[in-house]
């Protein structure tokens, strides 16, 4: 029985840590959104942000693995004696609901940021295409102007005088 309380306490602690890690991911998503809203996007800052989020996600996975292994160990006992652990189960449920809400929020932010990245690259491709077309037009103009013999052109100008 004392072991059960210790295991449940570990699970609660794990969920509390997971909630804090999710808060950090939410903060990184907000920073990412700010980076993408800038007129000149800093891809160094964006990459750094993504690497930090990856580390947070690894932490989440480790916490999930630990939680799952403890739950697997005590699942039957917990289900068999639900009334004895009612307050701890209630705390677990509250934390799980909080984590679920944060996860949904993160998914929404991720979709929004993904759309911002896609829009940025789409706009960049359009700008690059327009620049190439302008360069081609300028190049064609200079090529056509260079075909006109310089002496013929100057004499044509002189004749008009």
Overall description:
The chain has four helices and no strands. It is mostly helical. The chain has a domain of 112 residues: Methane Monooxygenase Hydroxylase, Chain G, domain 1 (Up-down Bundle). It starts with a helix and ends with a helix. The protein is 91% helix and 0% strand.
What radius of gyration results from the CA coordinates? 31 Å
In percent, how much strand structure appears in the residues? under 5%
What is the CATH domain class of the domain at 2-113?
A: Mainly Alpha
> Which structural class do the helices and strands define?
mainly alpha
So what's the overall shape? rod-shaped
Output the helix-strand order.
Answer: HHHH
Q: State the separation between the terminal residues, measured CA to CA.
A: 111 Å
Low-confidence stretches: none
Named CATH architecture of the domain at 2-113 = Up-down Bundle
Mean pLDDT: 87
Q: The CATH topology of the domain at 2-113 is what?
A: Methane Monooxygenase Hydroxylase, Chain G, domain 1
Q: Give the biggest beta sheet.
A: none
Topology, number of strands: 0
- Fraction of residues in H or I helices: over 70%
Number of helices: 4
Topology diagram in text:
Layout: H1 2-37, H2 43-80, H3 86-147, H4 150-160
Helix pairs in contact: 1-2, 1-3
